[in-house]
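Researcher: Final request for today, and then I'll write up notes for the group meeting. The sequence and the SMILES for adenosine-5'-triphosphate follow.
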Amino acid sequence: MPNKNKIKIKVEDLTLIFGKRKQEALKMLDQGMSKEDILKKTKCTVGVNRASFEIKEGEIFVIMGLSGSGKSTLIRCLNRLNEPTSGHVFFEDHDITRENNKELLETRRNEMSMVFQKFGLLPHRSILENAAFGLELRGEELGLRTEKAMQALETVGLKGYESQFPSELSGGMQQRVGLARALANDPAVLLMDEAFSALDPLIKSDMQDELLEIQSKLKKTIVFITHDLDEAIKIGERIAIMKDGVIEQIGTAEDILTHPASEYVEAFVEKVDRKTIITAETLMFKKNTTVEIHKDGPKGAIRKMRSTTAITLPVEDENKKFLGYVWLSDLLELEKEKETTVHKALRTDVPSVYKNYTVEEMLPLITGIRYPLAVVDEETGRLLGLVSQTSLIIEATRFGKKEVVELKEKANEI
Ligand SMILES: Nc1ncnc2c1ncn2[C@@H]1O[C@H](COP(=O)(O)OP(=O)(O)OP(=O)(O)O)[C@@H](O)[C@H]1O
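Model: Predicted protein-adenosine-5'-triphosphate complex:
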């Protein structure tokens, strides 16, 4: 099992400059000069500009950005297919930027395997030989490499195609071979550079699903490059957004959508379907006032309601477990009848959600109800917070960010 608190790759202040006058360009970059001005003055291109980030063991870390933003340059720095101009890349505790050629070769063969957009298959070798190629380079003996390659081909769903040749396979299948070759090495880290970009949309979507499934079993650390935001959101546990060689923001899709770090990021994610990403955890507000079933009688519950101007309140037991709702009208009846507990007023047939529920999943639950959705802890059933209907509808209808904040504040006051 991977340890998600363990840092697998650490990139520290990494800069890569293309061109002859690298040191001069680096100085200019330090002085705050733009990529454009540096190019004019030195004919050098800033590929990556002072990138720092950490990738955790077992996570899928996506680097995304428009064409030319520096994604490929950055991922190729991780295994030094591109030589960084300054900064460091640590794999676990060793500094890859300081490795000699022999050590670097070992790292590439054993620790990090790359899957390329153009598949990189050898046309005159069979699918099995292609899948075993990395192992062959590593000097593994034939029996072992055949066994491992067969296993990897099975993992990617290509059992039975071993003796065919790349030209006999569709694009999607060829990319599966590329993936099998990387997996056969059993590397700690998979580097995937626009691995699915050349595939047509349906096959691309299948491959994404398959990668997620493989990942749920193998739990590799994966660095995945894409220029496709939907793909980044679908497969990335965290996403780094790049622009002009700079990492503008790193976070989960939800972090990025709800707290974009710059106008660029905000514009970038504007068209994303928020309702599939925003969760109850982000929308919920804490309700300080609740009715405690063993403590509050109708009188006490009515007093609590009056102090909050609510006409309905959530009810908890002594362990803070959510039980349902009580309504003011029912409590007034109980008060008249001189009841001492609120039990008779408790309505338990109310929906509740967990904090990872998306807006899309919550929307059907609010039709026909007039109270906030209770968010409860999956294990203990404790009430974590409430999601107002207004905030759900706002997210579903995709207002601008400023309006969402204002309306959400208003909704939570109610
Ligand atoms: N070999 C090179 N020599 C000079 N400049 C380069 C080289 N490779 C890339 N660049 C430049 O570095 C910058 C980053 O390019 P890179 O290919 O990393 O971007 P990218 O985000 O991967 O783009 P794409 O999605 O189009 O592949 C660009 O300005 C590009 O022109």
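Model: The mean pLDDT is 90. The domain at 281-413 is CATH 3.10.580.10 (CBS-domain).
Researcher: Thanks, that's everything.
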